[in-house]
## 1
Amino acid sequence: MTFRGFRAFLQSRHFDAIGFRCYSRDHNYMVRHTQIAREAFPEALILVGGPHPSALPEYVLGSMPNVDFAWKAEAEEGMPMLLSASQRYGRNIPDEWLAPIPGLVWRSAGDGSIRLNPVSFGVDLDSYGIPAWDLLRPDTYPNITWDGCYPIVTTRGCPYPCTYCNTPGLSGKKLRHRSVEHVLEELRMLRREYNMTRFSIVDHEFTLDRKYATKVPLYLRESES
């Protein structure tokens, strides 16, 4: 989508909050995208998360003046807290409401300094629910499948200290699992709603826990029999 196309997309809808996922290669583009978003919706919350702000949170927020909040690591726990506060205060959320939100990167209303809250990695991944594929509309979203395979995430976290990778910073050093039943529920839904017949597990460390890794195909075969 071009910058012009992005502006037209925003103007055709209404948004209270606009969030971006940012890789390091996207930094300069993201500065422009967030500027367009701010011009289109002056009162909307503009958020940025993903690998780049997780690795360089203070730099990202400091170099993107149109971004209200950045996120380090996972946002499932903290995002509802932030949106709840924004319903009451809009963009001008008091510091005492922002300080407890896990992983949030924000500017203090007092002195304008950038604050970084401690991150939190939820243990019960099932509690986050099934991904909202109906909002993503995978049948129309470009490149959501690879060679006809739908991407599935079953675990998060990685214990290895590789210097070229920020997975531990994004999803923690402890390997966490969705239950096999929860994964199968998502697979059945994708087949039912989108006629999915092939999938790709895109975890960083799916095979680290061999017992878990063997359970997924075993349960899948049993459910099909």
## 2
Amino acid sequence: MSVSVRVLNADEARLLTAARLVAVEKAPYLAHALFSTHPVAAEGYVDPATLVGWGPALAGGVLVHEVGHLVRAHAERADALGADYDPQRWNLAGDIAINDDLLAAGVHLPDGVVTPAALGLDEGGIEEVYYAALSQHTASGMRLDGVDDRGGGDDGGCGSGAGDPPASWELPADDPSAPAVGPADASMTRRRVAQAVREHATNRSRGHLPAGWRRWADQMLAGPTIPWRRVLASAVRRAIAHAAGCHDYAYSRPGRRRIPRIVTPALRRPLVTVAVVVDTSGSMGQSELDAAMAEVKGVITAAGIGTQRLVVLACDAAVGATSRVRRVEDVQLVGGGGTDMRVGIAAAEAIRPRPDVIVVFTDGYTPWPDRPTRARLVVAIIGAQATSEHTPDWATTVRVTAA
């Protein structure tokens, strides 16, 4: 079915503004998202005539619902379901998750909107759980207003912003009449909404905040969980590989290439030496240190670096002195004051043969060298109160967290 899409006229724009104001009154934390979108009229789908029939209160509720799909990144989350995901079932899962929260907040929605309870599901769930619980036949033929009209082409559902295929009423992203919100602006908008949700939650006088929105905001602001073991192992592995790859020519062994009256050099692969410097101050976490050392030791062993090419230095927390230990397992943390890891790094660089890689374990409360080290420097920040704020830009820094 062909859908006519056009810009709003003045009367329609005023109607939409009234609906937005109602939406902001019910869900003030979505204000930035509601006013960041560029509305158009899609005649034959949800067009201005439909909004007039609904009135500002109901139209505002529908706007909150549709913006909810965008803010909760349902299109992006659909990608994680795999190439064979069912877009209708995912749209329905998003619908019931959003409607569940909006009805709990007192937002007006059209009669017959689909809810978890209507489908025999628990309230307060998340989209991915609902998607897994919904059967294929249940998902087909349902949409926001409860009308069984998905079979009429690509115009059912909530569009590509909810994880559906692009519908005929959607404009191209570069359409000048209503330019799409770019990925960077969309990410910034989601973070601003998440901050507003968190602020709303702390001000109970402003009304009820649905649990689903609070859960989403906490996940949004928490950021991604970084697998520090993989990152640390990768950083050390790359540093070792870089040092091992620094082949050079040397005359200590003649080359295989024979040229009359000329002695050619042979390509010499250096033996890699690794120095591990451990901050032994009491503010370090012993369990995190043990786990991080195990990762580094595993990488070093896998790289074929023997004990004779591995040096472990313990940097004393009290006086900034260093001591050489035989094994990583021999390092014990002690109480003490400020640490100067410059002493430990300088001691590592003074070792002969000079190390190609230096791995530093510290809580971060230490001065650092003013210039890059000759060896590649990997810093593992350890401890509940640790900081990586002053770690050198030229070092590879990994934050080690408790298991």
## 3
Amino acid sequence: MPSKYYNRNFRPQKFYHIFNRGAYKHQIFKNSKDYQLFTSILSYYLKNPLGKYLSYFTHTKKPHSQIKPPTHPPTVHLVAYCLMPNHFHLLVKQLPKATKKTNISNLMRRSMITYAMEFQNKHKHTGAIFESRYKNVTVDTNKQLLYITKYIHQNPHKLVKKLTDYPYSSLPVYLKQSKPLDWLYPNYALKLTDNYSKYLKPPEEQSQTEKFSSLNLDK
């Protein structure tokens, strides 16, 4: 029986927690430019679902931040993210307009292939970058949705004194400590809390069925 984590039956208007880590638990982000590259690639495909594979990033003379993709209506919304040295977490929503060519599967395939190619070229790396296929879990309730954003943002707690000091997550946008991003949609979660300034308060105790995000990818 196939694992529930590999069920790719992504449905419109549903939220999904997606995660993956490096092969043999190795780092997939070795420096700040790696984090920036992954973010640039992900944001490109979020804003341009039909965009070409980005050898674009290696060969263009423009800085990644200045690459302007063709205008195309988004088909997947990114709700929250956190990039860790050896793994990543994404929370996404599939929109009704998504097709087989522009759905979450397409977004992940393009993003991971593009990043792997760039990483191999940059670091002279041979072999797989990621441990396996990415995993995904369906978010079924509003309570789960809010909880998983907090879970994602609290991942770097062992790396920094304050979570707000960690630069590779969507938390600063959630707390209005950085400018909004045109490819990030935090309001899906923030509208479920009374006060965004209290957003990082420990989530309520979850029932056993709702503790679906108990994986520790650092182990």
## 4
Amino acid sequence: MRAKDVTLMGGTSIAMQDDIDAQEKTFVGGQNLRYTGNLKFFNPRKGFGYVTMDQGYDVDASVPNEMRVETAEVNSSGKRPLPMQNVAVEFGIWIAQKGQRTEHKIYNMTLPGGHPLTQDALENRIKMGVVNYQGSVAIWNFRQGWGFIKADPATMLPQRVASKLLQQQQAAIARGRQVSLDAKMFYFRREDCMQGAELRKDMEVSFQLYIDDKGVGACEVINLSA
């Protein structure tokens, strides 16, 4: 048995890392001072990216306009950070000492307002309740970690989901793709699968739905057959 979603009394997040950082790191303007800027890119495979700070802050001339951000400082609510590009962000600045040389780096990078850089937030994902649907895996690219689920033909979709799916299909047709408007096909990623789910093509699955900027997708995917 394992504990999940552990918080302080009242639901407050446990922030032990903040206390450790306060003892071990030197900050520009203090640990709680926040700046805004633009994340030029973040590559999770390489473990770093670069942020351009907005103009107008009263900081020492030694603080560069562009600074490196590393995986440990990407606040993604405990999950592996996603590839990102051209995202408005908020952050602190800390000073890393490398021998006789100092380097300014990004600290605790979030979305503006302190919101974690999660997939849901970045893609404006809205979960469509906790209703479980059933279907089968139509496509599964194991190497790249993505696929499509085909819902059972009799599946009744909420009106909001049906409208969003139709928009997604029409946009695909406009790009020259052959898409059946009758098909209920939902994109999903490996991160959308429940822990322990081992998928393969034609496997029967249970899933929930969400909508985002791109259309409709499946999440909470779990296999129903061995």
